[in-house]
């Protein structure tokens, strides 16, 4: 059978497509290897002196008001993201800025958590919370459709500003260049202060920015609730957060901070997951008192209004803002009394 002109054109296109896919994959792998070689000699950093902490604007966070999304803008849908436990999709605004939209129970907690981490000198993503956004060309979402009203209004969103930075990979809580340092120990304490029970390596990122390797906890959505097993842990749960113990055990040599993450014992049949969750609990154990107090002194420079601004920026109610602010202040005071 002879192919007509259309069939021949289609055939050639398909052949070229299959040829280009491995070429593109090889090119991406080559770029990643090239980035890795370049980054190998760059300094690794996990903390930077925040300067005058009392002057920081914790409502707008690290990105500031100048980078904040316009709440009245119409965003253009780009693609849905299937990775992770929370529904996500990417959009672009009229300025050409791309944003990753997250939906679900993590959006408020993550917005507040990034601001407290930034205030303490740790690297964070540029996150903002909006009660709703308008998105044009929005298809029916495979995840998170319950947050869409009228086909184009999306309720309760966290927008992460996407910048042109290179992600080098992920990092391990127990194998990294900062083990034993005051700054790393401070980050471990922050995880308990925030009640972050999801300390998987995939939530830790290494970015290459300004000729340095920056280490950060890039997903802090599982915070401000109760830590525990899959049946008891929560996110963005004020009562659970208030009822949680902060300091578990104190000796002159070290402090164990509370973080529960291991599954119910019957779940031990999934050995890799069980072991991983058990190891997470050790992230906040064995912290030198002087390092914990150092973090407390940093956070102690924050005013009550600044702490309130963290939760106000996250869209919490006045009652929730009051409650979260009191509990964070209590935990900061506990660090300074060690």
What does this 3D model show about the protein?
The protein is of the alpha+beta class and 338 residues long. The chain has one domain. Helix content is 34%, strand content 20%. It has eight helices and twelve strands. It has helices at residues 5-39, 107-119, 182-193, 238-242, 271-280, 289-299, 304-313, 318-336; strands at 44-45, 74-81, 88-92, 98-102, 127-136, 148-149, 153-162, 166-170, 204-209, 212-217, 247-250, 255-257. A five-stranded mixed barrel has the order 2-3-4-7-5. The chain has a four-stranded mixed β-sheet with strand order 1-10-9-8. It starts with a helix and ends with a helix.
Mean pLDDT over all positions: 90
Query: Would you count the extended β strands for me?
Result: 12
Can you count the helices?
8
What's the main sheet like? Answer: 5 strands, mixed, barrel
The SSE order reads HEEEEHEEEEHEEHEEHHHH
Strand order of the largest sheet: 2-3-4-7-5
Number of domains: 1
Helix content: 25-40%
Estimate what percentage of residues fall within beta strands.
15-25%
Q: Structural class given helices, strands, pairing?
A: alpha+beta
The N- and C-terminal alpha carbons lie at a distance of 85 Å
Low-confidence stretches: 25-30
Question: How much is the radius of gyration in Å?
Answer: 22 Å
Taken from the alpha-carbon principal axes, the silhouette is: globular
């Amino acid at each position: 059978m002879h192919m007509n002109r259309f069939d021949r054109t289609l055939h050639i296109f398909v052949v070229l497509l299959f040829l280009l896919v491995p070429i593109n994959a090889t090119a991406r792998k080559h770029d990643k290897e090239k980035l890795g070689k370049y980054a190998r000699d760059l300094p690794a950093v996990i903390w930077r002196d925040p300067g005058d902490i009392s002057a920081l604007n914790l409502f707008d966070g690290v990105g500031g008001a100048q980078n904040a999304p316009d709440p009245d803008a119409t965003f253009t849908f780009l693609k849905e993201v299937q990775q992770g436990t929370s529904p996500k999709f990417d959009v672009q605004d009229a300025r050409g800025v791309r944003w990753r939209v997250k939906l679900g129970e993590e959006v408020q907690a993550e917005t507040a958590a990034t601001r407290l981490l930034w205030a303490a000198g740790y690297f964070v993503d540029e996150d903002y919370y909006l009660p709703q956004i308008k998105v044009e060309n929005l298809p029916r979402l495979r995840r998170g459709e319950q947050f869409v009203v009228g086909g184009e209004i999306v309720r309760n969103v966290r927008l992460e500003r996407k910048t042109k930075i290179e992600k080098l990979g992920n990092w391990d809580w127990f194998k990294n260049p900062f083990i034993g340092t005051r700054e790393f120990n401070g980050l471990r304490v922050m995880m308990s202060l925030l009640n972050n029970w999801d300390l998987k390596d995939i939530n830790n990122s290494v970015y290459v920015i300004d000729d340095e390797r920056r280490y950060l906890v890039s997903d802090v959505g599982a915070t401000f609730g109760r830590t525990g097993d899959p049946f008891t842990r929560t996110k963005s749960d004020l009562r659970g957060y208030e009822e949680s113990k902060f300091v578990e055990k104190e000796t002159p040599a070290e402090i164990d901070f509370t973080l529960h993450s291991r599954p119910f014992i019957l779940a031990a049949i999934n050995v890799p997951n069980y072991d991983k969750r058990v190891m997470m609990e050790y992230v906040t154990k064995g912290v030198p008192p002087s390092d914990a107090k150092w973090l407390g002194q940093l956070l102690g420079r924050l005013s009550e209004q600044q702490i309130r601004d963290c939760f106000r920026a996250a869209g919490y109610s006045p009652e929730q803002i009051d409650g979260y602010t009191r509990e964070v202040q209590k935990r900061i005071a506990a660090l300074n009394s060690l």
